[in-house]
User: Which sequence fits this backbone?
């Protein structure tokens, strides 16, 4: 314990939101110090990262859909869990080294947020990847709990706090009380599904094939789930499905709203199911406390209004929803002794 404390004086311990789309790293006293896409560029058929191991994050994302036959730009996480162990390890190692910036002999402690619905095997994969990537000690915390902590909700008190965390690969819906999760639902419908729905709609209506990055930009720039005071439109470019040649079309916010209806409805149904499974006293607390939205998907225009209409509860967007989980992992790390007695944390406990 004393030796670990001494090492801590020379290391930069960090909290990590290991997301399907983006990875955020938070350090005590500094806030979010890294926010990079969860993308790695490798030589096709191998796990060899390009450019001396630096083709990770934003550099690699810019290659998505543009790589020649010899290169693959890979997102090693799918639906919030590791799909490629070796590439995830390389990506984590790059991010940890970039933030730590110290001797390889002094390794940091790391807290990583994981989806609540993953299996013990998937948790072990995250733990092993972080350990082999250069961590001294690894702790795992469930994403909705990290989001609740990062949002400053009173999760340690005898009252219900509800969080809806819409990430890239998963949506986590949880009701928390007394520093634990009372009810939780996790579905693999989130930002990626919204992007896929836009791609499918544009192809079906305009015979135009667009890429994931284009779909994401459409969602961010003109996406909504309720009627807007002033509807918007955007010109998009891609490949004509029939002729195979480059082509363009103009899509409107009304059309994108139609495309997003199904994935958003699945999220709302998940929230409703979670509320139905809550104890009556917890449900009663939520009449006053309401629901809190976190994650990048929470920024979809009108989602808070749509969710409020569906549940009859007040819905609040947390401060800086994109970094909410990462900030929660950092707070968890700062209060490790207190939190790990009440929450599942070290993989050895699984």
Assistant:
């Amino acid at each position: 314990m004393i030796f670990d404390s001494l090492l801590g004086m020379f290391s930069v311990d960090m909290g990590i939101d290991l997301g399907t789309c983006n990875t955020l790293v938070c350090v005590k006293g500094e806030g979010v110090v890294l926010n990079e896409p969860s993308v790695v560029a490798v030589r096709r058929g191998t796990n060899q990262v390009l450019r001396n191991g630096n083709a990770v994050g934003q550099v690699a994302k810019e290659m998505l859909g543009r790589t020649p036959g010899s290169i693959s730009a890979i997102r090693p996480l799918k639906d919030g869990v590791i799909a490629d162990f070796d590439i995830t390890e390389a990506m984590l190692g790059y991010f940890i080294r970039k933030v730590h910036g110290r001797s390889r002999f002094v390794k940091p402690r790391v807290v990583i947020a994981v989806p609540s619905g993953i299996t013990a095997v998937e948790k072990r994969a995250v733990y092993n990847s972080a350990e082999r990537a250069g961590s001294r000690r690894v702790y795992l915390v469930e994403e909705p709990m990290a989001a609740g902590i990062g949002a400053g909700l009173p999760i340690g008190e005898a009252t219900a706090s509800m969080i809806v965390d819409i990430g890239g690969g998963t949506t986590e819906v949880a009701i928390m009380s007394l520093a634990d999760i009372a009810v939780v639902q996790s579905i693999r419908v989130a930002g990626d599904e919204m992007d896929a729905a836009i791609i499918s709609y544009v192809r079906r209506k305009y015979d135009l094939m667009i890429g994931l990055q284009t779909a994401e930009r459409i969602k961010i720039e003109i996406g909504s789930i309720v009627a807007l005071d002033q509807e918007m439109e955007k010109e998009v470019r891609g490949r004509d499905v029939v002729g195979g040649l480059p082509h363009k079309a103009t899509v409107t916010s009304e059309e994108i709203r139609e495309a997003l209806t199904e994935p958003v409805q699945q999220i709302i149904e998940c929230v409703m199911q979670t509320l139905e499974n809550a104890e009556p006293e917890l449900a009663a607390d939520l009449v006053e406390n309401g629901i809190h939205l976190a994650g990048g998907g929470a920024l979809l225009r009108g989602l808070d209004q749509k969710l409020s209409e569906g549940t009859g509860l007040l819905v609040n967007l947390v401060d800086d929803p994109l970094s909410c989980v990462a900030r929660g992992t950092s707070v968890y790390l700062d209060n490790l002794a207190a939190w790990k007695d009440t929450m599942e944390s070290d993989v050895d406990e699984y």
Q: What stands out?
A: The mean pLDDT is 87. The radius of gyration is 21 Å. DSSP finds 13 helices and 17 strands in the chain.
